[in-house]
Amino acid sequence: AVVSTQSTGGEGQVVLNENKADLEAPNGDQAIDAREKMKKNITVFRGIAFVVGTVMGTGIFITPNSITEKVKAPGTSIMIWLAGGIMAAIGGLTFCELGTMIPVSGAEVAYIRKIYGKQPAFVSLWLTH
Prior knowledge:
The chain is mainly alpha-helical. It contains 6 helices and 2 strands.
């Protein structure tokens, strides 16, 4: 497929050529159209199931024991878990807001690049990955 970039007043937009002859592979098979391959099919249920599964899978049944051993008080342990949950919720809501305001792929690196520039985005990527 032929991909070209169009400028629409600041942001570039990728456009696929609609010619079916351009979508054929060298061996004669039809190549998969990028729009068909990259469909957005996540639903609210799938999104919630993904988040809940990730949280439960990352040690929610293991870490409370180690925290309670260190603070030696169940009330303090619960307060620590609540504070962590509130911070995680605020972080998730912040990423949701950024995702709706800056609809590009690349997660935090794309957001840092858009807000602060190329150099801080590169440093962020270099330090975290």
